[in-house]
Amino acid sequence: MTDLETAAHEPEPSETTGMVVTRQAGFYTVWLPSGQRILSVLRGKVRKGGPVVAGDRVRVRIGQDGRGVIEEVLPRTSHLIRPPVANVTRVVAVVAGPEPDLGWLDRLLVVAESQGLSCVVCLNKIDRTDPETVQSFRSLYQAVGYPVATTSARTGEGIGPLAALLVGHVSTLSGPSGVGKSSLLNVLCPEARLEVGDVSARSQRGRHTTRVVRLLELPDGGLLADTPGFSRLDLEGVEARELWRLMPDIRREAAHCRFKERCLHRGEEGCALPEAVEQGRVAPSRYRHYRRLLDEALQREARRYS
Ligand SMILES: Nc1nc2c(ncn2[C@@H]2O[C@H](COP(=O)(O)OP(=O)(O)OP(=O)(O)O)[C@@H](O)[C@H]2O)c(=O)[nH]1
Ligand SMILES: [Zn+2]
């Protein structure tokens, strides 16, 4: 018996909590802990509280007809604006071979850390990447402290281990154009593939300027947004003085810097960071990107205060 069949035999309690997985024309699909999905509308007072988005955890009352009424939106742990998804816990930062864009990756990792999101780093297109590059990418980011997946959406290599990193999370893929985010989505979620031929969904997207975001169920558990996140990587809101805290490898070494909080760890005389790079505890690319992001944050702050 499948989970769905089991669910059909167990009457749902009249009130339960669930997660909004998609919204369409005033109807919200709520995913219940049993695996069942119910079509729901918003109670008037909930509507006044602002938009309800995919990822929102809600208290829902189920009527005789099997339809739901969303009574309350439970507090959010995070809220992405673009795409509008609540309660994301995991960002999959995707870059692709043969020459992964590490500058983009390090920037995204900082932005995600500043929002308290946990990251998985993914190198896609390993079928067209030199094995040495794959290996050094893996070592670099494992040493920083991130789970690393190396994948090929084309051959399927590494997809299982990537899926395993998403179990129990609400995740979003993020990465520069063309790295294979849609391709990964299709191999990770069989449900996503159906969409390709779904003309009504496509034409709807064309009509509306804001795209409807769906959370797709991963076969092994977890939910994945069907719209990539973080299309703009704004460092807005990241203070120059706080930047070192947002890069785990820099943070570890900064703890040994004798200038402590007074230091920007930019390579000042006596700062611990240049030595950490020399001795291989911080990768040169990571330190270079740290300094680039720092300069940018300092310039922004100078403009703000001038
Ligand atoms: N060789 C190879 N090609 C891939 C792989 N994954 C994706 N591609 C190809 O890369 C191109 C871009 O893939 P998409 O999935 O559209 O990339 P995307 O990141 O969604 O791109 P945007 O929608 O522009 O952000 C397509 O031609 C894919 O077939 C892979 O693992 N290996
Ligand atoms: Zn320092």
From TrEMBL:
It is an enzyme of class 3 (hydrolase). It is found in: Cytoplasm. Binds 1 zinc ion per subunit. Residues 77-233 form the CP-type G domain. Its cofactor is Zn(2+). Its main location: cytoplasm. Residues 86-231 form the EngC GTPase domain. Zn(2+) binds at residues 257, 263, 265, 271. GTP binds at residues 124-127, 175-183. Its EC number is 3.6.1.-. Monomer. Associates with 30S ribosomal subunit, binds 16S rRNA. One of several proteins that assist in the late maturation steps of the functional core of the 30S ribosomal subunit. Helps release RbfA from mature subunits. May play a role in the assembly of ribosomal proteins into the subunit. Circularly permuted GTPase that catalyzes slow GTP hydrolysis, GTPase activity is stimulated by the 30S ribosomal subunit. NCBIfam families: ribosome small subunit-dependent GTPase A. Belongs to the TRAFAC class YlqF/YawG GTPase family. RsgA subfamily. This is Small ribosomal subunit biogenesis GTPase RsgA. It comes from Geochorda subterranea.
